[in-house]
Structures are given as structure tokens and as C-alpha cells.
């Protein structure tokens, strides 16, 4: 978590590149190193050898490398800082931002915890200085903020009455639909409720395919309680599916949130719709950045949304009360992907001083 500011060195290396070819190499090296868990994760997900993962790894870096190569300039001065900030904006917003992993701006949560939007502006200004002749002063200043933050660091708070449930069910989560499986989850809910939790969050895909029958099963088992369960599920229709977060109480069930940016290629496959075949997860790019539950504004971040910039920032524009981050990372075993997701969620919670609830399956 506290090493996120190391990413701030990248703008300096990019700016000091003696040629565009070197700038390309620096950009590719940074991106490929930050996403080094992707080849192994893809191989595990598809039960294939390493080559498809390596190919996707290289393809994913294309937009990042292209943007930074196009905006690099050998001329020093303020123009270079403006160009890097332009690259940072492009990699933070769609369409390039769809693969804008490991964005240096995420370090704002470590450098300036609690500063909110001022902290984001301060981080942008620091990044700009890193590309200018004033970079030694920027390094010293950022080092001071970093050391102070590390010395006083505390984890984000957990909102009263809320609890996230981490599971270790591997790839069976979302695919196991037996009554015994759901009874086990419900028993977990009752155990946590007995400890005083009223809002219990399960990971992405915890409920598998969401159906009226499943909704009735959960409602019957919650009858007579004031418990609210938030859990991941998939809602399917003829044209594809939505990766969602549902809210369940004894009185009602509803789809609380539809994922804005599912994982490209493995889930989000827009070319299928372009060719008229349909299928794949839908991306609700700028929809429902904040949802309301029992009078509380929630910023949901499901899995892939924690790796990129704009979903978190879009949610923060609406001043939510808490952040709820979920994921299903069984396929990332042995990689750094889930750790990066969790660190990113913590960084945003600390930057904007918001309570954080997390729930992951590994």
C-alpha cells in the first residue's frame, strides 16, 4: 500500500528519455511491470498455457505506450509538463482509460490522505513538476509527504453496522448453485448478524445467476430480521448479461448497481454486439456512480473498476458516504492483482476520507 508513490518516478523517467524510442521502452516497461500478473491470471482463467496471457498482456499495453509515445517531446520546458498531464488525463478517462491500469495519480491517497480533490490537484501538480527542471524539489517535497503519511498511516474506517465477508471458495463461487451452497452463505450472514452487523457484503459473483427463485429463498431465510445483504450476481437476458450488486432484505430485493466497466475481453466483448451475435457483459460506462441504500450513499467498485481511474473519481464527484469494493479474484492466485485492487480501493478511501467495506473471493 505505502509503496504506491514509487509510481511517481515514471513521469521523471519518461521526461528524461533522450529519444522517443527510449520513451516507448520506459512506458512499456512501467506498464508491463505493473501488470505482470496478467499472463498467469489469464492462463488460470482460461485453463490454457501462458501464450494467450502473454499476447493479451502486450496488447493491453498498446494504448498506454501509444499515448505516452505520441505526447513525448525532446524539448524541455512547460510544454513537456502539459504534454504529460494530457497523457495522464487520456489514460484516466475512456476510451484509453479502459486499460489505464497503474495510474500514478492513485498515489494521491498515500501522499495526501484526507485532502480530497485538493490532494488530487496537488498530485497532478507534483507529477507536472517531475517532468520539469524542478524535479529535484518535487522529489524532496513528495518524499517529505510520503514519510509523514507512512509515519501516521491508519487503515480506512469501517462504517458502523457494516461488514465485508471474504471467501476462499476458488472458482466454484458463482458456479455452484446448490441449495447447500446458499444455506452456507445464509448461515454466514446470521453468524455475522449475531455479532452486531446489519449490512453484510459478499464478493462479486457470490450469488451466481440472479433469479426470482433465488430471491425468494434469501427473503424467506431473512424473514423476521433487519439484515441487509449486498452480494454480486449476474443478470442474464437474450443480448448478454449485467454484472451487478444486489441488495436483499426480508421485504424486498433489488439490483443496487450495474457494473460500469467489466473486465475487457474475458467479460466485456463489444465486438460481439457489433457483429450482431450478442453475449458478454454490458458496460454501463457512466451510469449509477453512486447508489442509495437505507439513506446511505454508496460508491460501488466491482473488481476491474478498482484498477482504473475514472470509476472511482466519477463516484467521488457525487460525494458518497462510503465505498464498497468487491471482487472475485480466484484466477489471480500467485499474482499481485488482488493486492493492487485492494491497495487502490484503500487509496481512494484515504484520499477522500471515506469508510471502506471490502469483500473478495480468492
TrEMBL record:
<dbReference type="InterPro" id="IPR003010">
    <property type="entry name" value="C-N_Hydrolase"/>
</dbReference>
<feature type="transmembrane region" description="Helical">
    <location>
        <begin position="84"/>
        <end position="102"/>
    </location>
</feature>
<feature type="transmembrane region" description="Helical">
    <location>
        <begin position="108"/>
        <end position="127"/>
    </location>
</feature>
<dbReference type="GO" id="GO:0016787">
    <property type="term" value="F:hydrolase activity"/>
</dbReference>
<keyword id="KW-1133">Transmembrane helix</keyword>
<dbReference type="Pfam" id="PF00795">
    <property type="entry name" value="CN_hydrolase"/>
</dbReference>
<feature type="transmembrane region" description="Helical">
    <location>
        <begin position="54"/>
        <end position="72"/>
    </location>
</feature>
<keyword id="KW-0472">Membrane</keyword>
<dbReference type="InterPro" id="IPR016707">
    <property type="entry name" value="Conjugal_tfr_TraB_rhizob"/>
</dbReference>
<keyword id="KW-0812">Transmembrane</keyword>
<feature type="transmembrane region" description="Helical">
    <location>
        <begin position="134"/>
        <end position="153"/>
    </location>
</feature>
<dbReference type="GO" id="GO:0016020">
    <property type="term" value="C:membrane"/>
</dbReference>
<feature type="domain" description="CN hydrolase">
    <location>
        <begin position="151"/>
        <end position="362"/>
    </location>
</feature>
<protein>
    <submittedName>
        <fullName>Carbon-nitrogen hydrolase</fullName>
    </submittedName>
</protein>
<dbReference type="InterPro" id="IPR036526">
    <property type="entry name" value="C-N_Hydrolase_sf"/>
</dbReference>
<keyword id="KW-0378">Hydrolase</keyword>
